[in-house]
Amino acid sequence: MLSVKEVCKVYNGVVVLKGISLRVEEREVVGLVGPNGSGKSTLLRIIAGFEKPNCGRIFFMNREITGLKPEKVVKLGISYSFQIPRPFKNLKVIENIAVASLLRFDKKRAFEIAREICELIGLEEDKKAENLSQGELKLLEIARALATKPKLLLLDEPFSGLDVKNTRWVLSEVLKLKRMGFSMMITAHRVKILEDIVDRFIELRGGRIVKG
Amino acid sequence: MRFNRFSCILCSVRGDLLIRDLLLVIIVFAPILTQNYSILWISTLSMIYSLLVISWLFMERQSGWTSFAHSIPFGLAAYLLAIYPYAVFIAPLASTALFLTISKLDRVKFVFVTFVLTVVFWLSSFYMVIERNGISIGGEEGFSVLSLYLSESYIFAVLLLISSYVFVRVLEKSSIGLKMAAMRDDEEAARAIGINVFKYRFMNFVISCSIASLSGICYALFFGHVSPDVFSIEVALFPFIATFIAGRAWISAVVGSYILVIVSRVFSGFVPDFHLLIYAIVLIASPKLRRWWGVKC
Questions:
Q1: pTM for the whole thing?
Q2: ipTM more than 0.85?
Q3: Which residue, A168, B105, B187, B228, could crosslink B109 as a Cys pair with Cβ 3.0–4.6 Å?
């Protein structure tokens, strides 16, 4: 489904990724773990189109997506959720999700889908995004990514900055997605938190794959 | 409190009807019933400025870019109407191109640069001289335009104001409006859900500059004359002050414009010694006015 070949990235002379190659198969959930600065988020941002790699190529469903803009990548079926939630603050929860759904559906259908996702995830649809708790914001990020009807979900640190209760909540929702058959790449600092979700781990350290 | 109850009664009669929309109809159509020349004149000018404020507010509310240069599409359209009427459509396009170029900067720098551009355009307009039939015209004196009768100007302004008002409100509720709102709140997050930020920003700027240009044309036809005043800082700041006084709702654009025109044009004639004092009082009292005005159903 997704194939990353020899991708590297350099920021201001600092090599962040050194020849990363990996594959994600259909209905597979891959955990990307490693310490801060190991290049996990950069790799996801490169796949999602927010950063351009300095070398290497990326293929999705047998189509090259290297260097494509994020709005093109998401249309092909790769959806990305940010590490630090970036809600549309002045919009309601349902509008936040519906606007993502507009990518593939008309307005009426987009709101129907947004309502379904709100029910699935357990978010109050009429609440304004700026009034959400940290846990709710993380879920809104995931909900918005889901609304684009992706084939592959890239979740960047979905559990960071959450207390125990909210971590459990987000974890259970991600597990639901796994059971529904979504392909996912999830980053985290710790292996333990992802143990129940992922099919296999890839460990990054200093911009290289050290395990997996 | 009484206003609150009254507005809610009205809303219970027609769920989708807001008291603000009713107020717009009253403000716009009442002057024609009075048949009073002065009232008609003030109303027409207020409506022309309302159009300018709506155009500014559309950019501010829907894309998050605050401009102090809406005098450019306004003035450019007025000048082109006077000099090359067939090229008047260039005004919104040129202004859009200008705004798009500087929108590469961040939003704070954008505000600053638009203000600088306003000053540059205003000063340049004093040197705008052309030769017609061997005579140099323009400069500080400006240009003459074929003027409309007051009643014609009024009808023209009413039509433009109502259609622009309905257009921006419908657009705001549409899927395009929702995408623009998302883009306004966070451009990178908008790109992550497939919104082409450049396309919607371009669309927003074109619509905003077109409405501002229409108000400039209306202004030129109303006065029958254009001068460097159309590019002035006063015009550039007008939308900002009007929304500061009456708030950022669409109808506030109309209310704020009426208040500003009355304070600046009428009181300066009736009580020239005190009109600045009245202006100051209006500005000081504006937070209270906005709070009163913010009553929703």
A1: 0.86
A2: yes
A3: B105
